[in-house]
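F.,

This is the one I mentioned.
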């Protein structure tokens, strides 16, 4: 069951814009309104053949189109419809930015040209220092070192540095444009008189992407025919202070903040930070809790497995919730299992590594050899779960690759 199906069942008017990247279409799976692309990535200026509007093919305009803006424009259009409905609403916006290709209007890119000439090494140091000052990290968690296959920034030529600066200026420009659009969205909620009692949940779905897939970089990133991406070098900086990347199950791949805004519903102190761990599977449970609805046992005549997520509402109330006994992670041959402060993780089919996240959140002190029994117990939990959910061919190799 999708969150659209669950919330429509709870009496909500359900809307979505942005990236789908699944089979069928959102309007087939519980969303009353949808605008966006069914593909996993798209050209931000010209779109692709998978764009849809309420189940019908959408022809992307030849000029004046930018995907991030369009996602918000149609979200606002749907919200205006929702205002006429005598029912609450759910709006899910899956902005594709800053997914590759890195493309942004020229004015957005030029705001940031020159700001990244300090390089990835200095950027990581500055970000880490600021994270400590903001209380987001504990000082005992050491900053992870630059990987051996990432060159020192000072080893680059001036031409290479300018190219890398442009790459990150584009990335920053894309995020800037997302920020502007969230401002437009919240402005619409204020216009509707709904800003105080609307729960906003904002997060990324994974850590920074290390895949260098650039092509046609002889064109500037505001040209629709360009295709820039960023790579492992900047991804390592963007994942400060953690190791590894998108798809991996180390903290650099899975640890993202959730920002929550709900003036009428939050009891936690405004601007406060909680380090209680949560998971994407908790979002469905949270929305159903807020809606006062349950999760059914069947959908369209077929049985549903029990909901694995747990509501985050107790955290919103400023209390400590009863969290998960165990949390499981898997993408391809990258796996992890977390139980309390202990995390067992394997990257790219390699051997299991064991970390105490309370003492070592940046995963620099592997305790698998020192605590083999604990590692074996967690590995057995992961294997049992993998069998339950039907994963195949994903167990770790016996030896290090």
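My design for it:
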């Amino acid at each position: 069951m999708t969150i659209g199906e669950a919330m429509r069942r709870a009496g909500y008017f359900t809307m979505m814009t942005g990236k789908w990247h699944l089979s069928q279409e959102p309007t087939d799976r519980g969303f009353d309104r949808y605008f966006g692309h069914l593909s996993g990535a798209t050209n931000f200026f010209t779109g692709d053949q998978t764009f849809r509007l309420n189940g019908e093919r959408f022809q992307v305009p030849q000029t004046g189109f930018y995907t991030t803006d369009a996602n918000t424009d149609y979200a606002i259009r749907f919200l205006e419809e929702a205002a006429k409905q005598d029912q609450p609403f759910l709006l899910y916006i899956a902005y594709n930015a800053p997914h590759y290709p890195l493309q942004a209007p020229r004015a957005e890119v030029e705001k940031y040209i020159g700001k990244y000439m300090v390089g990835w090494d200095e950027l990581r140091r500055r970000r880490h220092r600021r994270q400590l000052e903001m209380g987001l990290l504990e000082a005992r968690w050491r900053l992870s070192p630059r990987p051996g296959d990432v060159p020192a920034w000072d080893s680059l030529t001036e031409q290479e540095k300018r190219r890398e600066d442009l790459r990150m200026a584009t990335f920053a420009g894309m995020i800037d444009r997302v920020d502007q659009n969230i401002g437009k969205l919240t402005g619409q909620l204020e216009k509707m008189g709904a800003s105080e009692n609307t729960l906003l949940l904002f997060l990324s779905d994974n850590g920074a992407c290390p895949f260098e897939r650039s092509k046609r970089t002889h064109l500037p990133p505001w040209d629709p025919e360009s295709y820039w991406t960023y790579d492992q070098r900047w991804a390592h900086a963007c994942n400060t202070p953690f190791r590894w990347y998108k798809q991996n199950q180390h903290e650099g791949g899975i640890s993202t903040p959730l920002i929550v805004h709900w003036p009428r519903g939050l009891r936690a102190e405004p601007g406060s930070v909680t380090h209680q761990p949560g998971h994407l599977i908790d979002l469905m449970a949270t929305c159903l809790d807020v809606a006062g609805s349950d999760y059914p046992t069947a959908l369209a005549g077929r049985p549903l497995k029990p909901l694995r997520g747990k509501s985050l509402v107790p955290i919103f109330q400023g209390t400590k919730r009863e969290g998960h006994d165990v949390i499981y992670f898997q993408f391809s041959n990258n796996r992890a299992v977390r139980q309390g402060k202990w995390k067992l993780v394997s990257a790219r089919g390699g051997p299991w590594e064991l970390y105490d996240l309370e003492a070592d959140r940046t995963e620099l002190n592997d305790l698998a050899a020192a605590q083999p029994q604990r590692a074996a117990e967690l590995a057995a939990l992961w294997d049992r779960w993998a069998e339950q959910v039907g994963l195949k061919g994903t167990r770790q190799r016996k030896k290090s690759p």
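The first helix runs from residue 3 to 9.

Talk soon.
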